[in-house]
Design goal:
Layout lengths: L3 E10 L5 E9 L2 E2 H15 L12 E4 L3 H5 L14 E4 L11 E8 L2 E8 L15 E4 H12 L2
Antiparallel strand pairs: 1-2, 2-3, 2-4, 5-6, 6-7, 7-8
Length: 150
């Protein structure tokens, strides 16, 4: 199984009491953006834009809904079937500009990230053979709790 770490890059607190955390994701000790860069490089190079491979950054998530968000229960309305969660976003700060999407499903004692998608690329960017990630549910929940308390 994979191991996940959610890392707070920045946390903002607003006068209204609303808080959001800019969250980066490490899987098995590697940034998710770096993992995706390795996978996407052949596709990006083929279209003549190698700089697009893995060009993702941490996203801002409401601090009050971190657990729901990373369990795929909040805002899972991205992608072709509107059933995916954005796990990384664009360096410009606009999530919808260049998001990395996946399905997040709890399956018994596991949390599975599958069916990755970059919605702004055509069918030449094929994620069908990208295996995704399988996490131990308790380790995953502990990582979310650590994020909330960071």
């Amino acid at each position: 199984m994979n191991k996940i770490l959610f890392k707070v890059e920045n946390r903002k607190k607003y006068d209204s009491g609303y808080q959001e955390s800019k969250v980066n994701i490490l899987i098995d000790g590697r940034p998710l953006a770096e993992i995706m860069k390795d996978y996407e490089m052949p596709m990006a190079t083929k279209e003549g834009s190698p700089g697009l491979a893995g060009d993702y950054h941490a996203i801002a998530v409401s601090s009050s809904s971190l657990k729901q968000y990373y369990l795929g229960k909040v805002e899972a309305d991205w992608g072709d079937e509107k059933n995916k969660t954005a796990v990384l976003g664009c360096s410009c700060g606009t999530l919808g500009c260049w998001p990395l999407l996946c399905k997040i499903n709890v399956q018994g004692a596991r949390v599975v990230w599958s069916d990755f998608e970059q919605p702004h690329r055509d069918e030449d960017w094929d994620y069908s053979i990208f295996e995704g990630f399988v996490f131990d549910k308790q380790q995953y929940l502990n990582a979310i709790d650590a994020l909330a308390n960071a």
